[in-house]
Amino acid sequence: MFLTITTTGVPERPATDLGFLLHKHPDRAQTFSTSHGTAHVLYPEADVERCTAALLLEVDAVALVRRSKSKGRGGAPDAALAQYVNDRPYAASSLLAVALSAVFSSALRGVCRARPERAAEPLPLRVEVPALPARGGPDLVRALFEPLGWTVTARAVALDEGFPEWGDSRYVRLVLESDTLTLSAALRHLYVLLPVLDDAKHYWVAPDEVDKLLRAGEGWLHQHPEQQLITSRYLARRWSLTREARERLELLRLAETDDSEVEEIDNAVPEETGDETGEETDASDGKAVPLAVQRRDAILAALREAGATRVLDLGCGQGQLVQALLKDVRFTDVVGVDVSMRALTIAARRLKLDRMGERQASRVQLLQGSLSYTDRRLKGYDAAVLSEVIEHLDLPRLPALEYAVFGAAHPRTVLVTTPNVEYNVRWESLPAGHVRHGDHRFEWTRAQFRAWAATVADRHGYAVDFRPVGPDDPEVGPPTQLAVFTLTERTEAKAA
Ligand code: SAH
């Protein structure tokens, strides 16, 4: 098993810095004993212009077989014969990835005390793996590495060069080249993707594999187009681990997406001046009340009516509603939940959480979480508010939110507000056919919202009624629609 890493340099930035970055001196061949055999690091070439480090792993095949048997994997289809006739010793496979992380652990983490500035910057890299087992062939190899900034040369290795008609083996000769990646990123790509391509992970998949995967995947896996295949193969198709990994990656992805959105709201709308369009409404008494304030008032009124004291603000954004709730002592527990860390940071600042007295602080919590996953922390509250949140989810994710809120958290009262798209013709600044906010994935008519709400209520044992927020236009209805869901007594009794 064999892998080489080459970089090039100039006198001010000699290629031999690779030795510092890998924490392995170019003048010495070094040997390490790893759990599956012996790893050697040596430098076939090392000068100012070009430096190559080679990692060579001698696998102890017998030990490997014993180990996998003792871990209960002896029942694999290749168990009997393949124990002694297997390709493990000479294929670059997941074992190489294990060796990579054992021998180059600091480099993998991007730590280099001698040359910290070089560890942090991209460098020209060429990685060669002469025999890479690749289920999925050269096409999959390209699909995995190209989105990460590698130029990929992947050629299937013939089963036997003397008999081309026998076709290709499952090995690929791989060359990766890039000058946009740090060494740490490059090593972490290999650490994850070599076993993914091998797809025959040899060792027991422990629960902390998810942590390992996410650590190695930091900065790239959450936005990789083949993320599903990568997590599933890496975690040996263990469903619960794969699911956990995907949820955590989804959080990372959403946290990034929604950050830009918060920025937009920050810049576009001076605080407390209106809806996301910046429009103001209801000038009947000469003094405009921003729609956002009217919405908050309608929500507070509905919560008081319902007699709620313990309230979840789901998708709390920058915490305006949480702040309003805290002003009323009847609300004893107020929890703001949002996927965006940035929004929560702004909310914490707005609430002056760090300077709050103990008593007040005990009434409020801000939690990061995604509403499209069930969350135990959300159980046991009187009411949940989804104010201007559902339209930020892609429609296919909406059933997941529905289940998490109405099915799993299952509070007695749920309030949902969303724009009424029919009203958009009344916004002067809004070009026809446009939604009110760049991040709205959909905006519904009154009929669409009512149909959705009725189905949800029916499915989860709630009754629902609808209230206008803002001026109720005789033709197009109000700018905001509010649905008030209340658990029906029958379901409440059943739960009790
Ligand atoms: N409730 C606030 C903010 C609405 S903006 C108000 O009425 O003003 C929508 C908010 O939903 C944003 O803060 C966004 O980060 C959050 N959000 C979007 N998708 C989410 C998800 N899947 N889970 C949790 N929060 C989400």
Considering the chains and any ligands shown, give keywords for the structure.
single chain, 496 residues, Rossmann fold, 7-stranded mixed β-sheet, alpha+beta, c-terminal autoproteolytic domain of nucleoporin nup98, 17 helices, binds S-adenosyl-L-homocysteine, 7-stranded antiparallel β-sheet, 22% strand
Give the oligomeric state of the chains in this entry, treating copies of one chain as homo and distinct chains as hetero: single chain
CATH topology title of the largest domain: Rossmann fold
CATH architecture of the largest domain: 3-Layer(aba) Sandwich
Percent strand: 15-25%
> What is the helical fraction, as a range of percent?
25-40%
Which CATH top level class of the largest domain fits?
Alpha Beta
Quick structural gist:
The chain is of the alpha+beta class and 496 residues long.
Describe the structure.
The protein is of the alpha+beta class. It folds into two domains: 203 residues, c-terminal autoproteolytic domain of nucleoporin nup98 (2-Layer Sandwich); 231 residues, 3-Layer(aba) Sandwich (Rossmann fold), CATH 3.40.50.150. The protein is 36% helix and 22% strand. It is built from 17 helices and 16 strands. A seven-stranded antiparallel sheet has the order 2-3-4-1-5-7-6. Strands 12-11-10-13-14-16-15 form a seven-stranded mixed sheet, sandwiched between helices. Strands 8-9 form a two-stranded antiparallel sheet. α3 packs antiparallel against α7, α7 packs across α9 and α8 packs across α10. Bound molecules: S-adenosyl-L-homocysteine (SAH).
